[in-house]
Amino acid sequence: MRFSSCYIPTLKESPADAEVASHRLLLRAGMIRRLTAGVYVYLPLGLRMLDKISKIVREEMNAAGFQELLMPVVQPADLWKESGRWEQYGKELLRFKDRNDRECCLGPTHEEVITDMVRGEVRSYRQLPVRLYQIQTKFRDEIRPRFGLMRGREFIMKDAYSFDMDVAGAERSYKSMYDAYMRIFQRLGVRFRAVEADNGSIGGSFSHEFMVLADTGEDTIVFCRNCDYAANVERARICWTGEKARSCPPCRGVATPGAHTVNEVVGMLGVPPAKIVKTLVFLADGRPVAALVRGDRELNEAKLKNLLKAQDIKLADAAAVERLTRAPLGFAGPQGLDLPVYADLELQGDTDYVTGGNAADTHAMHVDLSRDAHVTAFADLRNIAADDRCPCCGGDVTLRRGIEVGHVFMLGLKYSEAMHAAFLDEKGRERLMIMGCYGIGVSRVAAAAVEQNHDADGIVFPPSMAPFEAVLICLDPNNAQVAATAEKIYALLRRLGVDVLYDDREERPGVKFKDADLLGMPMQLVVGAKSLARRVVECKDRRCGEKSELDLDHLESAFGQWASRVRAGWDTGT
Ligand SMILES: [Zn+2]
Q1: Which CATH topology does 468-568 take?
Q2: Superfamily name and number for 3-234+399-451
Q3: 169 alpha carbon – ligand 1 mean position (Å)
Q4: How far is the CA of 502 from the centre of ligand 1 (A)?
Q5: Ligand 1 is an ion; residues with CB less than 5 A from it
Q6: CA atoms within 13 A on the CB side of 99
Q7: Cβ(107)–Cβ(72) under 8 Å?
Q8: Separation of CA 58 and ligand 1 centre (Å)
Q9: Rounded to an integer, what distance in angstroms lies between the CA atom of residue 300 and that of residue 423?
Q10: How far, in Å, is the centroid of ligand 1 from the Cα of 377?
Q11: Where are the domains of the chain?
């Protein structure tokens, strides 16, 4: 395609409201434009990028035996009431009424619609499994849409669903999607990890998340340096090996005026954060409980919620804490509390801690939890940390930030039970279908790839998803000989099947080089009077910046070799 006839509205300046690289660069490269909060227009280059990602996704879905369909954006409330999610789903579900006063919503996901469709058609085990997917626009009314395509309200997603007659079949469906996802993200050229994940609001028996590694990611993942173990930190089990218990002097109160936080107590008493116990008061389905973790650890609400088998869990507010512990926020301790007290496993093995003193401006020193407090139970209650051991092999672990781009769920009977999606088995007995659901954020994967691959000059696209694989820059379009050579090279590249953007604009070379770097095509080729005189074409690998010269008189083979080198540089070792 000729640059002169393309609509590529690049921006010289960084947009002020763009906080992360992908948002900033996709706007600057003229690929997206904001319509309203969390809602974007995909301009021609942006759409080419999405189409390339979708093509790879489609090929792998089809290869895994899933068939494509397309479901509507507007969904009737009745189905959501049947599944129970009309009440459960919060304000992220955009609800409205049509002219006949019927309640509707914009689909944030399609379990209800597809379950309704399949239960209406499938009667016999002979019709199973059913494996379907779509690539479609979703809407979730995020409270704080931000980071451009990373957390938008409207986004493009591939969602797939499987219906099987038994657990073995459902596990085969799950495995085939897991494997397809591995191939998709490898082909997309991003560095990623598949991790054990928490099931979140969709529910079900187990799931994996696919995370693109990037420092701007909102999730933290942990992986073992010794074995294959990888998990979301929220999900990671902690293997606590125990420490030696020591003797503990008698407990006593100490004045700590104004020291509410762990850091303030550390500063005042000179003890390390690991010797402080935080006492957090929660309301679990309205019932107060206290949870204890070390001062340098993060309590994991999902683990506490699972332990208590609670539907809902939230931190108690200051007034409730004061009423329950008789101390202002920051001074609660486990001693003498009239509440169930749950302590993290790690606290079990050591003693001589500092805790809140259950009185204003007071802490307690030399606390032995088994002597001085009544602990209802010790349990795994916190997020894994860099100094923990791998729960599988005991090896060292590494924590990294990640962007979730895919998620595979074993749903089990969650929807088939609620919506009665049943079939008759070979003995004529009625049974419920076993479901799985599998998502890839198509527009988010584009943003994640840019987060992972960019530099000061612009985007560095993996070849698989670059709007164009190559850019051909003609430096002197008014020099007839240079222009004719550029035209020939353009024709040759197209004949070789290279997706090329031909910069034939009457612009200064500096403008063209800057745009080429900003747009991030993996291969740059340059034709100008000087290189033409030497019968070479200058080229640059955008990723590593390495420049080469290709023999103009043997361009086809020279280009072929160079292009394979550029593409090979992108083969990911995750
Ligand atoms: Zn391990």
Answers
A1: Rossmann fold (3.40.50)
A2: Bira Bifunctional Protein; Domain 2 (3.30.930.10)
A3: 29
A4: 50
A5: 224, 226-227, 229, 390, 392-393, 395
A6: 0
A7: yes
A8: 34
A9: 40
A10: 27
A11: 3-234+399-451, 252-379, 468-568
